Structure formats: C-alpha cells, structure tokens
Amino acid sequence: xxxxxxxxxxxxxxxxxxxxxxxxxxxxxxxxxxxxxxxxxxxxxxxxxxxxxxxxxxxxxxxxxxxxxxxxxxxxxxxxxxxxxxxxxxxxxxxxxxxxxxxxxxxxxxxxxxxxxxxxxxxxxxxxxxxxxxxxxxxxxxxxxxxxxxxxxxxxxxxxxxxxxxxxxxxxxxxxxxxxxxxxxxxxxxxxxxxxxxxxxxxxxxxxxxxxxxxxxxxxxxxxxxxxxxxxxxxxxxxxxxxxxxxxxxxxxxxxxxxxxxxxxxxxxxxxxxxxxxxxxxxxxxxxxxxxxxxxxxxxxxxxxxxxxxxxxxxxxxxxxxxxxxxxxxxxx
Length: 333
Hints:
Layout: H1 2-11, E1 17-21, H2 28-44, E2 48-53, H3 60-68, E3 73-75, E4 87-90, E5 107-112, E6 123-128, H4 135-145, H5 152-165, H6 175-184, H7 190-197, H8 203-215, E7 217-219, E8 222-229, H9 235-243, E9 251-258, E10 261-268, H10 274-282, E11 287-290, E12 294-300, H11 306-321, E13 329-330
Parallel strand pairs: 1-2, 1-4, 2-3, 4-5, 5-6, 8-9
Antiparallel strand pairs: 7-8, 7-13, 9-10, 10-12, 11-12
Helix pairs in contact: 2-4, 2-5, 3-7, 4-5, 4-6, 5-6
C-alpha cells in the first residue's frame, strides 16, 4: 500500500491544480470518494482541487449527504468542461461514457472498483480493484496509509458510501471494505448519518413509486418495470433497490427516460452476472457496466421512441432469462 500511495503522489508531482471527477449523477460512494481524495491532497500537498460532476443528484438521501458535506461539488453544464487541468477520476474510468471527461484530457489519477476499462488510455496513476465493494474503501485505505486525521465529516461520508454500495456489507464485500468500516465506525457522526439515511422525500416520490409498481411485471423470479419519464436519473436505481426486497425475486430491471437518455438499472440477489447481463442487453446501442450484483446502462435517445425501446429491451431481457413465453403478472391490481 505504501507503494501505491507514493505512486499516487508521484503522479501529481509538479501539479498545482487538479479537477476531481466522479461519474455522472454521483451516488454516495462517488461523492465520498471525491471528497476524500480532495482532503488527502489538501493534507499532503499544496495541490488545489475542485470536484465537478455532470447530471443530477436527485435521490433524497444523496441530496442530504451533499448538504451535510457543505455542497462540495460543482455541477457542470455541457459547455463548461475544459481540460485546463489534469483530471482525477474516482468511482469511474475513462472510456465508460458515464462521466464528463473531455476528449484529449490529461488524466493524472484513476481510482475505481469497477471492472478495468482503462485499457490503453494514458493515465499517470491507476488503482482499479474490481474485487473491492466500494471506492470509498480504497480511499479510506489511502487516508490511513497517509496517517492523516480523518474528521467526522469525511468519515461519515465514507462510511455511508461503503454501506450503500455494498447494500449494508451484504453485496460484493471484501476484506478491505470490512477493515474500512471498522476503522471509520468510531469516527462517524451517527446522528448525521441517521438524518441522511432517513431524509424526507417529496410527495412526487410516492407518485413515482406508485407508477413504477403499477408498471412492474413479474416473470417467475424476475421483475421488469418501465417508469417512463423520470424527474431525476437515479430513480431507476432507487426503484430497483426497493423491488429487490420482494420475496422470491432474484432479478430486477427498471427502465426510464431522463431528458435525452434512456436509463436502465439492474439489481440481483446473485453475486455475479449483472454486469455481463446489461452489456449483453445494451450492446453497441449505448454504454453499460457494473458489478456482479448491480449494473446500469444508458442509451442516447436521439430519434428513438423511448416506449418502443423499452419494449425491445424488455423482450431481449425475457429471452436472456428464458421467460419469453411466461405471461407477466402485474404487481398491483
């Protein structure tokens, strides 16, 4: 680990400013990892850094986390992304299509826990560990190795990032995740964490949830739901997490549209297969990826009809799972 830490700082030797970039519509793991990297650079170097993202932070819990962290991220408009400083990518990678990385940008750092997609992209420092459940666990290890005091604010964010990305340590959890949780636990602000986890939701949330439940169809142990037009892009993931709690269900796929994008979220009780599944379904029509038990994909709509696209994808999914001849049962009546 000392070699990794040394290599990270060697990659930014002589750098005065750096742009930290999580994936679009950042979730708690991406937010916490970005904040932790900024803190590490502040504590151990004179490098100035800014965290930027593209998309929307829409989920109530994620908004509460950002408020708790005193709004550390800056939302980008499409025209605002300029490669004027080296980039540090966290919880994402070049070539994934799910971040605002400009073409020909200089990439100093990539820290992620998804399958390696860096390939031949020039990057000064790469730490990609698909066997780890959360990028926040990797960043916790860096903070520990650097021997910096981790304030409660950052510890709470990292703890929540690990907890959400591993579904309470029940999904894709590694030894590093467990070690990070044990290290962070005495440092967290429990009251703040509870407020984040129990963040109040608007009335529209229940309307959207009702529509998602009405649209859901059950094919043996598989649930597929098309949400239609969504107020924020991570509603598919939020709904899929909720539906996966249904007794007897092994797979959940939720689809919806947000602005010009068709979004798919996949959740499964299995420990493997979600990433391969979504890549097979989306194919070359868009971008897709994920872990063994959670994954997502996006397609730029262009002139495509979203309702037609939902039907096409749902048919491919039923064929993939071998339930093409199964009549879908409505979840609600």
